[in-house]
Write a structure and sequence with these properties.
By secondary structure, the chain is an alpha+beta fold. It is built from eight helices and six strands. Strands 4-3-5-6 form a four-stranded mixed β-sheet, covered by helices on one side. A two-stranded antiparallel ribbon has the order 1-2. Helix 1 runs antiparallel to helix 5. The longest helix is centred in the middle third of the chain and has 20 residues.
């Protein structure tokens, strides 16, 4: 089982970093585009707040979102708010998530996320950690993949290659950051393709944040990954 208490502490630290950085912005900069197509920085912050509440729902046995349409509508509704309101919402929703995560619970139980995906409750704090770290990068305000904690990069790489494991549209692939190695894609006796790169570049490619041009590829072309 994952160490949910450790991951909750990592979520708290990541949230503090994000809030400190966002506090240096102004209302005009929130309306500027983020690195996510079609989303302003305000959209990213609105999503982070609503995702925290959605994961509270997951931990407490409710549907993560009422519907995909409701999720999208909530983000659109909240995206244009002022910096002060956005910061307060991210902080307060994060506190609600921490409270839910600190409540006594069976962390070995299975919970349901979006689109019927299930996972161990113990992994929910890590999933939130990934949301905060990657979306901090998506804001485009000076926090880059290279700034992510080394522990996070290693665990996120392992999580994402596991997510793509067995995918019929991805050839059998060995992924390595030079220290650790994982296999993903279609099952095969031995992976035909090897992808090598720095931890930040590996996670950037796996998470759809970089095109993989900085990676070394042997045995074929760089696999095209489906959106997360």
């Amino acid at each position: 089982m994952m160490d949910h208490a450790h991951d909750l502490a990592c979520v708290r630290a990541a949230t503090d970093r994000l809030l400190s950085a966002v506090a240096e912005l102004d209302n005009a900069s929130l309306a500027e585009p983020s690195r996510l197509p079609g989303w302003s920085r305000g959209h990213v912050l609105a999503h982070l707040a609503r995702n925290a509440d959605a994961l509270v729902n997951v931990l407490q046995g409710r549907p993560m979102y009422t519907s995909a349409e409701a999720r999208d509508a909530d983000i659109e509704r909240d995206a244009a708010r002022s910096l002060e309101v956005q910061i307060a919402d991210v902080r307060e929703s994060a506190a609600r998530f921490q409270t839910a995560g600190e409540a006594p619970a069976d962390w070995s139980r299975t919970v349901e996320l979006r689109n019927g995906i299930t996972d161990s409750a113990s992994r929910v704090p890590f999933r939130r950690w990934a949301e905060v770290e990657l979306h901090h990068v998506d804001l485009g305000i000076g926090y880059e993949l290279e700034d992510l904690p080394a522990e996070f990069l290693e665990r996120e790489a392992a999580f994402l290659v596991q997510r793509f494991a067995g995918h019929p549209d991805i050839p059998a692939t060995r992924v390595t950051d030079g220290t650790r190695a994982w296999t993903t894609g279609r099952e095969a006796g031995s992976p035909g393709i090897t992808v090598t790169g720095r931890p930040a570049d590996v996670v950037g490619w796996l998470a759809g944040r970089r095109d993989g041009v900085a990676l070394e590829v042997h045995g074929g072309k760089l696999p095209k990954l489906p959106p997360l």
